[in-house]
């Protein structure tokens, strides 16, 4: 659409700008304040420079949490995106059952996050939960409060359960926007199902998949409540992701300086990865 | 045709199992739960639900959550509408940067903002009010709402606006009388997503409240830890939190998928 240049449009944006700036700017400045200064209460601040940043960047604890976070987010993307596409592809385009399916699939998205954690905690309890009991009676040695591998498996499975539907909904929306004529043409040419997927469906889904990957990346990178309720970051530190670690430092130990420095680094990492991904996707679009 | 349903059915079965586990546990007595695993409740009981519906500290949690979610949805949609219109119709100084800056707020981890938010809202004396949580949730809901609404508005031809102006409509009269009804579906989708993200978020909601506006999700965690792990009660409270979401999703079932697909990246 051709847009007209009109500087008065700023007035329409002002309310949003004020509200978001109030919520984003002031807290961000507070974080920056704490990140560069030492405080002993009473609003007395002493300049610390980049001490906290160096401390955080050098600490093994941060490296470990970041590594776990990367591994978790990587696993989530590798499992959820193909699974979501597969389910969306196998759904029929029309019919009375489609909306029933969509409503059922969207259900996990609307459950408060700590209820998701609690639900999976109950579900996975080794002796009284459905999953834990079944696995153990099948002969697997499974206990997510004691074994790191079980804890990881449960956390990843929980996230797959929770968020794959978002990928399904988005991919399904992309698939529905493909006109029937495309499929007819492919049929006449005798295209294989793989060719239809590779050259018709995948390119048409690119836009929605970009959104899906971005949203899944952001949300899984910021995950806090679900693993916190499910495993509490344990056993040991094995499922302590960045947000959990951050809250432990900030509210648990009240180490405001390092926590603030870590917040800024954390935020910058998310921004950087999103920006790189977005730029790469858009460059391909131009070609 | 029947073969086609295998994958979706299996997937839905997988989705339903944990939910079934939760609901079935909510009808069991504490003794039965701790006694061992059973697929169906052996001694069917409604006691857990009765406790929740008769104890004000429990059911007030639901009311609190619903209040701040509704306030948040109203604020978000009413400020996001004009902004989305500006982004979809006009070019102005710094518009692209502004749009990207809005989206970056969606990328800010809530854990980063928990403590500063606590200080900010304590300083302006809004701590422990519904309004505080509603305003705080605007941080991630406004960018999302602007993003979705802008997508829907760009799908409406510009001729609609121009004809209305030629007919002598003022901007606000056109906006309220003609434009808003035209994109009602988009508003529905945006409102749905606001409702959803505000309803499921806990970290900020918990940080900004103590007694008067405490959300149900936070009450659940506290009760579970102090009253010695009453799993049945926890399960019943959890089951009840699914209902508002299911209710809302039923209304927008035909638009959910469309909402994101139409937004621009």
How would you sum up this structure, described in words?
The complex is a heterodimer of chains A (287) and B (265). Chain A has helices at residues 9-36, 51-58, 60-90, 96-106, 113-124, 130-137, 148-176, 180-188, 193-221, 225-230, 242-252, 256-286, and strands at residues 4-5, 37-39, 45-47. With 287 residues, chain A is mainly α. Chain A folds into two domains: 9-49, no CATH class; 61-286, MetI-like (MetI-like fold, Orthogonal Bundle), CATH 1.10.3720.10. Chain A has a two-stranded antiparallel sheet. In chain A, strand 2 and strand 3 (45-47) form a beta hairpin. Chain B is mainly alpha-helical and 265 residues long. In chain B, 76% of the residues lie in helices and 1% in strands. Chain B has helices spanning 6-26, 30-35, 47-54, 56-89, 95-106, 110-123, 130-154, 159-166, 171-182, 184-200, 203-207, 216-226, 231-251, 256-262, and one strand at residues 90-91. Chains A and B meet through strand 1, helix 1, helix 3, helix 4 and helix 5 of A and helix 1, helix 4, strand 1, helix 5 and helix 6 of B.
Which tags fit this structure?
heterodimer; A: 287 residues; mainly alpha; 2 domains; two-stranded antiparallel ribbon; 74% helix; globular; B: mainly alpha; MetI-like fold; 1% strand
For the terminal residues of chain A, how far apart are their CA atoms? Answer: 21 Å
Q: Tally the structural domains of chain B.
A: 2
How many domains of chain A, as an integer?
A: 2
Oligomer: heterodimer
E-strand count of chain A: 3
Largest sheet of chain B: none
Derived from helix and strand composition plus strand pairing, the structural class of chain A reads mainly alpha
Unreliable stretches of chain A, pLDDT < 50, 5 or more residues?
A: none
Residues in helix, % of chain A: over 70%
Within CATH, the superfamily of the largest domain in chain A carries the name MetI-like
Helical stretch tally of chain B: 14
CATH topology value of the largest domain in chain B: MetI-like fold
Largest interface: A-B, 98 and 97 residues
Spatial shape of chain B: globular
Which strand order do you get reading across the main beta sheet of chain A? Answer: 2-3
Radius of gyration of chain B: 22 Å
- Largest beta-sheet characterization of chain A: 2 strands, antiparallel
Ends distance of chain B = 35 Å
Based on secondary structure, the structural category of chain B is: mainly alpha
Radius of gyration of chain A: 23 Å
CATH level-1 class of the largest domain in chain B:
Mainly Alpha
